[in-house]
Design a protein that fits this description.
Length: 186
């Protein structure tokens, strides 16, 4: 694990990797370097929520020998988001689209996943980090017209089954910082 204190927008621009990658991708790479030192680096991996995810971050991590599965939200520059959205526009939940791409000589995998009929999740991953064939399904809960709770299994790629297995640890930490401990308000 690693922690980096952010010193504000201007001071962080002088930090390592920032000039080449931009602030967010540079932060992601620095955190991984700090967390994985020495020979443990090769094959080490990172799974990140949407703040850290971008094509630049995935490529930089791959160049250093790290494996990565990064969710994409705001950092969608260089990512085929519109193409994936259009391809999955009428698809039901449990459908995904996998594309292979190369950014500055680094092979990457771009994945769009229809989580439900209304929500598409976007990810970029380093090559060979996981399988895109069907994995453990997600159990979706929903309420019917009479208020009864039902559930159904939604297919998803194996790479996402593994990703979501541990992603809640990040959310629990964020919730503690934001709500329970109210660190930002203090």
């Amino acid at each position: 694990m690693a922690l980096e204190i952010q010193c504000g927008k201007e001071p962080m621009r002088a930090s390592r990797h920032c000039a080449r990658l931009g602030a967010t991708a540079a932060c992601t790479l620095r955190l991984m370097e700090e967390a994985q030192r020495g020979d443990a680096r090769m094959g080490a991996g990172v799974r990140s929520d949407a703040w850290f995810g971008s094509v630049k971050a995935a490529s930089a991590l791959a160049e250093q020998g790290y494996k990565a599965v990064l969710q994409i939200k705001t950092g969608h520059g260089l990512y085929p988001k519109k193409y994936i959205e259009t391809a999955l526009e009428a698809a039901p939940g449990g459908v995904w689209k996998v594309l292979e791409s190369i950014y500055q000589g680094t092979p990457l995998v771009d994945i769009g996943y229809m989580y439900s009929t209304r929500t598409t999740l976007f990810f970029v991953a380093t090559k060979n980090v996981g399988s895109t064939i069907s994995g453990a399904p997600y159990r979706m809960k929903y309420t019917d017209d009479w208020g009864n709770i039902h559930s159904r299994e939604v297919e998803r790629p194996a790479i996402f089954s593994q990703f979501f297995e541990c992603s809640n640890a990040i959310d629990k930490h964020n919730q503690a910082c934001q709500a329970e401990l109210a660190l930002e308000k203090c």
